[in-house]
Amino acid sequence: MQTSKIVTTITAGFVLYSRSAGVAYFAAGATFCSFSAKAIKRAVRQKRPVYNVNSRGRVTYGMPSTHASAVTFFATYIPLACFYLPPHPTLPPSIFQPKIVSLIVIPWASLITLSRVWLKYHTWPQVGAGVVYGVVMACIWFQVWYDDIWGIRTLGGALEALLRLSMAWLV
């Protein structure tokens, strides 16, 4: 589906634009959430709705919905970061930014999640499990960064400073 390609491209572009360790950490979390949901899907092996057949006629699994878990990760982590973390120097500071971002990302993720059922790719329980998984993963991933568990945030700041120093000659 095109959604995953669009989201991946936008996220990669934002990582490159901001050169922020926090944004790279977020992207790594979204990737981990997606791949771990796929691993759970292979372990659970619950089939998709009967009217959904792969284009090659193969049976694919649907519990939990990977799309639902990934976009819910985005819709949970991004507002948390906007409200609780200082804006990165590459981003324009604005008092309204957290609200605007939340007003965009939450409905967008909701529509994608609901479309998985409307398009008959998943059942409600499969999408619900994906949503719960995405929220839990985003909250844990954010807390590790926010509380600097294992020194991840400190290491990210040091890597960012090193990148700025190494790129200074380009300016």
UniProtKB/TrEMBL annotation:
The keyword Transmembrane helix applies. GO terms for molecular function: sphingosine-1-phosphate phosphatase activity. InterPro entries: PAP2/HPO, PAP2/HPO_sf. Pfam families: PAP2. Keywords: Membrane, Transmembrane, Transmembrane helix. Residues 23-142 form the Phosphatidic acid phosphatase type 2/haloperoxidase domain. It comes from the Eukaryota. The chain crosses the membrane at residues 23-40, 61-80, 100-119, 126-144. This is Phosphatidic acid phosphatase type 2/haloperoxidase domain-containing protein. It comes from Serpula lacrymans var. lacrymans (strain S7.3) (Dry rot fungus).
